[in-house]
Amino acid sequence: MVRKFHPSFDQMDELSQTGTPYFFLVDFLMENVEVFTEEELDKSGLLIDFQKFKKTNEPLGKPLDISFQSFPQSEESYRKGFDLVQKNLKAGNSYLTNYTCKTEVKTNLTLNEIFYLSQSKYKVLYPDRFVFFSPETFVEITDNKIFTHPMKGTIDAGTENAVEVLKGDVKEKAEHYTVVDLLRNDLSMVADDVKLDEFQRIDFIKTHNKNLYAMSSEISGVLKPDFQGKIGSIMKKLLPAGSVLGAPKEKTLEIVLEAENYARGFYTGVCGWFDGKNLDSCVMIRFIEKENGKLYFKSGGGITHLSKAETEYQEMKNKIYVPIY
């Protein structure tokens, strides 16, 4: 398959080679790429809260009462896409497929309030379109060294011996190993001396109604000379993000597009801030989108041949939350 890349990737290369700071967003299918220099960002209305970059207004006060309800599809409906994914897994067309769903939610909070009140490593508000509060780094680049932090495997923190259960779960381990291997291979396309620095780190994620543990690893390498100072070229090579797609990428993408009955859009895409020298970027998950006056939360998880529909359905629902507390 010959893919035509968006001209904004070339713009990203030009800006990064001249040391010009900018913010970018790339949707899941790499069809929509938006790039904002600092001046353009001031006019865009975008609100951004990264650990190393913030563009926000005055924070809002917290409402006394927060209402947040979700209306997931039935398990029977979920199984239709799940069974198609499993059929392909058993046929050997994929060995990990990230299957996601779109769920209507109702809340007394605006997207703006969700942005300010939620607590997460990465937050972005695209006015009147979407907000997300992602815990997952995509890649970081510091002095031509590149890092990625695949996050795969979650469990309800209220489960007895939750950390031990998560680390020992055969399906979750297989899923995490697969993503780590995929990301290590992906990084090798743009970097040399690729190595696994940290494996199966457990992070605690606090939410308004349910706390989770998530499993992450860290992989690093040194950018190849052809990719140094070329953020757009790096993104073209690495996207879509393996942790939210699966492997092998090309065939798994075909499966995802057939199994999911909605368009992901910017959900599971990537956005990032280039400060003129270094890059910090994230995967756009934990994502609420406004559509025709309604709000929809997009969530899902990795499916392997070991996955059970009822467990994955529950995980998809567990991820529908706002981290406000």
Report what the structure shows.
The model has no long low-confidence stretch (mean pLDDT 92). The strands form two sheets. Strands 1, 2, 9, 10, 11, 12, 13, 15 and 16 form a nine-stranded antiparallel beta sheet that branches. The protein is globular, with a radius of gyration of 19 Å. The protein has 325 residues and is of the alpha+beta class. It contains nine helices and 18 strands. The protein starts with 7 loop residues before the first helix and ends in a 7-residue tail after the last helix. The protein is 29% helix and 34% strand.
Summary of the model, kept short:
This protein is 29% helix and 34% strand.
- Overall average residue pLDDT: 92
Helical content stands at 25-40%
| Number of helical segments with 4 or more residues | 9
Number of strands: 18
Approximately how much beta-strand content do the residues carry? 25-35%
Q: Helices and strands, in N-to-C order?
A: HEEHEEEHEHEEEEEHHEEHEHEEEEH
Provide the structure class. alpha+beta
What Rg, in angstroms, do the CA atoms define?
A: 19 Å
Measured between the Cα atoms of the first and last residue, the distance is: 46 Å
The biggest sheet amounts to: 9 strands, antiparallel
Regions with little confidence, pLDDT below 50 for 5+ residues? none
| Silhouette | globular
